[in-house]
Design goal:
Layout: E1 2-3, E2 6-7, H1 10-25, H2 40-54, H3 60-67, H4 73-80, H5 90-97, H6 101-111, H7 117-123, H8 129-141, H9 151-161
Antiparallel strand pairs: 1-2
Length: 167
């Protein structure tokens, strides 16, 4: 499935849909439920917040307070897509979750159904057309998860481009 120009596996969307349905109704989602569009930012934040909680660095209440909210329910609503992340909260949320602020900001813009093509042109203004295509492909194959460039990933990229000329 592709939404917002990003490919998603059916399993990932189904899991996110079931989680969203469960969060909203307090019950498990039926197997044949109607698909609900889950904002890309909600899927991303769900994973980032779950990782932060699992690593024991913080609690949902602490995340909420750091972002400027009294109730941790706001964080649950961000994770489920029930509430949009205000643009003025993106920077501090990215810092608290240790995620790339530019990536989170791009996802935040998309949740408002804004035409982010101008933002992407500004963000990638120093890239050639070929570099933009490569970056777009990386976003597609990683399901827009903004993976850290591990040594293995960097070695794979190097290997893919070894011996190639620019012409």
């Amino acid at each position: 499935m592709i939404d917002n120009g990003v490919a998603h596996t059916g399993d990932e969307k189904t899991m996110a849909l079931n989680k969203l349905t469960s969060a909203r109704t307090g019950t498990a989602a039926p197997a044949a439920s109607k698909e609900v569009e889950i904002p890309e930012i909600a899927v991303f934040l769900d994973k980032a917040i779950e990782r932060a909680l699992r690593e024991g660095n913080t609690s949902q209440a602490e995340i909420a307070r750091a972002v400027g909210y009294k109730s941790p329910n706001v964080i649950s609503m961000f994770k489920s897509g029930a509430m949009k992340v205000p643009l003025d909260k993106v920077g501090v949320l990215a810092e608290v979750l240790n995620v790339d602020p530019m990536h989170l900001f791009r996802l935040a813009l998309a949740q408002f159904a804004l035409d982010i093509s101008l933002w992407e042109k500004l963000q990638t203004g120093v890239l050639s057309q070929n570099e933009k295509k490569i970056l777009s492909h990386i976003r597609k194959v990683t399901n827009n998860t903004d993976p850290k460039p591990t040594p293995a990933i960097l070695a794979g990229i190097k290997k893919a481009f070894e011996g190639r000329s620019s012409l």
